[in-house]
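Example record used in the benchmark description.
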Amino acid sequence: MDLRDKILKRQNKNDNEIFEKAKVSILGCGGLGSNIAMILARAGIGEIFLYDFDKVEYSNLNRQNYKISDIGKEKVLATKKIIAETIPYTKIHAKNMYLDEKNMDKIVENTDYFIEAFDNKESKVMAFDYFSKKENKFLFTASGMAGLGDFSDIKVKKINNITMVGDFKSDAKKDGLYLAYVSIMASLEALECLKKIRKDYYGR
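Model output (structure tokens):
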């Protein structure tokens, strides 16, 4: 039994085979993206593309998957290293770049599944608009993940090829950001992505 089989022993074997062949892009490596990357790697996703232009700061550590020793490092490289230390067989592509409507075409062919994990409204809107025109690509996005909200407020909405999770009302500037709530959204985005990958494999 190799290392991958040992780590994924408690998962469904068919899922393990499906996820090993899958490729996912994560747009942003902050509170959502850094945690989603680890969730997907632990689930057995074979190849992950990371995109971010930012560096790790102290204020990130309350909710993002980084350590004190990562301060000042590029987020994509720090995330790649953290995953490699835990799940070494996952192939990680770390792309230190700012994404906008001018360069999205350069990355869209790498995968069919995209996790939107931006930390600003403008980039979120850009991603939504871009992927709404790409019916054969699938976007998983989050809106409303601030404060210490009520779990019953969290919704999953689907519009064609786009899946949205969140409470769709909380505000980061007013309510603050806490891992306890952000991690729920991260898990939901990852869960919806994994379900879609499996559904597409079986064609239903």
